[in-house]
Design goal:
This protein is 20% helix and 25% strand. It has 6 helices and 14 strands. The strands form 3 sheets. Strands 8, 9, 10, 11, 12, 13 and 14 form a 7-stranded mixed β-sheet that branches. Helix 3 (187-194) packs across helix 5 (215-225). It is globular, with a radius of gyration of 18 Å. It starts with 15 loop residues before the first strand and ends with a strand.
Amino acid sequence: MRDFGQPASPVGRRTVLLAAGGMAFGVAGCSSNRPHATAAESPASPSGLPRATPWHPSPDDVDPQVKLRAVQLIEALGNWRTGEQGAAAARRRVSALGLDPSLVGQAGPLLASAEEAVVRVVDAQYGGILADAASVLVVCQQWTRQAGAATAGGTTVDVRLSRARPRWAVTALHPARPGPAVSSLPAAARKVLDDPHVGLPPAARADVRSGHIHTSVLEALLRLADTYRINLSVIRSGHPLNVFGTARPSDHPRGRAFDVWQINGRPVVDSATPRRLIESFMRDAAMAGSYNVGGPVLPSGAGAGRFFSDPTHHDHVHVGFRS
């Protein structure tokens, strides 16, 4: 089943103490096809938080302006300086973009109670794109400061858009909701969390810690990490519930799929990324047990029904499992 889904629900932020001006989450941000510096590498603001770094879509995207519109909203919601916190100020920032200020009420964890906040977008990928509607999954890190204490966290937001003139309009926000961490995790989950070759953004890491990710997914990640360095965008939360534009359930909310936006440091969306690298990864994902591997190319010699390619998967590789 092709998996390019419908909305998941809102997420509590994983917060950890921010050390000495910043902390990396094991994934690099992406501006066009060049990674941002991680928070630990980028210069801090006078408050000690990382500086806000605007994200820009790749010119190789199917429709860069759809992603830009979604990300601009997330950056407006998740960035503020001292004196600009709170819902009223957020509504002013959203209105300045020409978007509906009532979207602030759907921002969830992005509007934490804090004096100052910085959001950094790791990646923006399609959850689905049709002629007049789209889902953009905005994966982000966020740092906040309250009473002199800085914390780091982040979320993934399923941003829904509809085609409008002169720009796409945002119609809804669905922040991730991974669920609480469990006290006892299976060995495969612990290994995934510790594997330096598996880059997990905040919501995906919280998904693994929740215990809701199927063993087939965890074992496939470990197997692929023996050969590749992979950065994930989405596992379970923050992804649409249904295949976009249909009533068919997606494998993601059931903990049976993951999406990869970067392989060996090369963004999938970038036309300069060798197609042979992406094809090799897709084949190896199938060998690791996936019944449903989607990406920007069809591997040569691929059997019908196991691999697929479409505009939604132009920017990532989807790896799904039956059980």
